[in-house]
Write a structure and sequence with these properties.
five-stranded mixed β-sheet; globular; alpha/beta; binds zinc ion; 336 residues; 2 domains; 10 strands; binds 5'-O-[(R)-(carboxyoxy)(hydroxy)phosphoryl]adenosine
Length: 336
């Protein structure tokens, strides 16, 4: 049974073919980063148009590589995300579903991230704690079973990926700033600035990154005025503060909920320091997707669709929503 996965929620067009029996068969990704870089962030209209341009060629490529004419079901990202961009994937999924006579499965983008480690050879068993860290979300979720998601904490302001991107912009790095900032940080001293570890003193598991962002901005202005700005040191100190916060909060949440496994997923899950620190400091097991499946991709949507096959619907109505809480998802009926 083959499931075609389609991801178009933001600035990557991702397509993959996943077999329930054989695992991931083929995948392709087109990044729009170059198109948006000149504007310093994602321009929704440009994103939608580029998904229109790239989606069908990528589907052809993936089916061609897999050597099949059509899949048995189509999973697509139905939200959360940019509504126009989601409509492109939803429209294509339903159109192809009608043409091929196969069902479609609307998938929650963050559930896709959360299930991305299921694509690896050593997937996590339930239950686990999920640390979902992307450009739009920062969440700690107690995952008892597929679809049984209890949101323990979220960010009160900026997402951690957004904090990386904004700090990178402040340092004159391009968009998206996360990977560029992490690369710059490798050459800096992470003790140079004592940036705050936001919320660590507070009870609960929420995050806040706006205070850290402001602290970085003030130090950068001060150092610039004095003519002594070392961008590497700022990058390293910021990254250390952000990672310390994520790791401390995640480990505390796992311990207090008796969870011995942590899954780290979402774009910021590609951060090497985050991966290293959480593995070193947590006494249980840590799981991640491979680097390329941390950021947006079609494979995670295909695998999530395969696990939610019982929720496949006839292709007739394009279901998309820009806002959609992961905690509202339910436990699907088991796939036979
Ligand atoms: O999951 P994703 O591809 O898209 C969203 O759903 O948001 O995440 C993108 C985010 C961006 O903010 C990007 O800067 C960040 O992930 N990111 C990183 C790294 N790679 C990507 N942040 C820190 N370190 C990285 N290595
Ligand atoms: Zn994402």
């Amino acid at each position: 049974m083959n499931i075609l996965g389609i991801e178009t929620s933001c600035d990557e067009t991702g397509v993959a073919l996943y077999s329930r029996e054989r695992g991931l068969i083929a995948h392709a990704l087109h990044s729009q980063v170059d198109l948006h870089a000149v504007y310093g962030g994602v321009v929704p209209e440009i994103a939608s148009r580029d998904h229109v341009r790239m989606l069908l060629p990528l589907i052809r490529q993936v089916l061609g590589e897999a050597g099949i004419a059509k899949p048995d079901a189509i999973a697509y990202t139905a939200g959360p995300g940019l509504i126009g961009a989601l409509m492109v994937g939803g429209g294509m999924a339903n159109g192809l579903g009608l043409a091929w006579g196969c069902p479609v499965i609307p998938v929650h983008h963050m559930e896709g991230h959360l299930l991305a480690p299921m694509l690896e050879d050593d997937p996590p068993e339930f239950p686990f704690l999920a640390l979902l860290v992307s450009g739009g979300h920062t969440m700690l979720i107690a995952v008892r079973a597929l679809g049984d998601y209890r949101l323990l904490g979220t960010t009160l302001d900026d997402a951690v990926g957004e904090a990386f991107d904004k700090t990178a912009k402040l340092l004159g790095l391009g968009y998206p700033g996360g990977p560029a900032l992490a690369a710059l940080a490798e050459r800096g001293d992470d003790n140079a600035f004592a940036f705050p570890r936001p919320m660590l003193q507070k009870p609960g598991f929420d995050f806040s990154f706006s205070g850290l962002k402001t602290a970085v901005m003030l130090e950068v202005r001060k150092a610039e005025a004095a003519g002594v700005l070392c961008r590497e040191d700022v990058a390293a100190s910021f990254q250390r503060a952000a990672v310390d916060t994520l790791v401390a909060r995640a480990i505390k949440a796992a311990r207090s909920h008796g969870l011995g496994r942590i899954v780290v997923a979402g774009g910021v899950g590609a951060n090497k320091l985050l991966r290293k620190e959480i593995a070193e400091r947590f006494d249980g097991s840590v799981f991640y997707p491979r680097m390329e499946f941390c950021t947006d991709n079609g494979a995670m949507i295909a695998v999530a669709g395969a696990l939610r096959l019982t929720e496949a619907v006839p292709a007739d109505e394009i279901r998309v929503q820009s806002r959609w809480s992961i905690a509202s998802l339910g436990v699907p009926l088991p796939v036979q």
